[in-house]
User: Fold this.
Amino acid sequence: MMVTQELLHDFRKDLELAVKPLCEKYQMAISLGNITYGDECFSLKVSATLGTDPESVARARFDDDAWKFQDIGIHAGMYKQIFVGDNGKEYAVVELRPRARKSPIRVISLDDDQYYVCGKAFIKEWTNMRYAKILPHESENN
Assistant:
C-alpha cells in the first residue's frame, strides 16, 4: 500500500475523531499539524495545550510562538494587541503562524470583524489597546 493524499486526508479525519475523547479526558486542546510523507511512511506533528477554553488555548499558543516575532516588537502577552496597518486601519493580532512564509500573522479587522492574514511589514504602529471581543472557537471558523 502506498501513502497517498487521499489516504492521509482520511487518516487525519479519523485521528481528529479519535483524539476528541482524549481532549475531554485530559482537559486539553490537541491540534494536528502538517503531515510529511513518502511512498511508504509519513509523520505528523501533534501539539497539545492544557485547557479547553478556546480563548485561553489561543492565548497560550500565541505566547509560545511570540519569541519568533521579536524583530517586529511582538512578545508574550500581546495576544489581541491592536495595531495600525500600513493601510491606516486598526487590527488586532490573534494568531502567529511561524511556518507561514508570506503571511505569518493572523489578524482581525476592527472595522468589519473579518479575519485576515498579513506579513510582518503590514504592522506600522502598535497601540496600547486590546481587542475586547471574545473570538469564535477555531472549529467554527473552518
In short: The first strand starts at residue 28 and ends at 37.
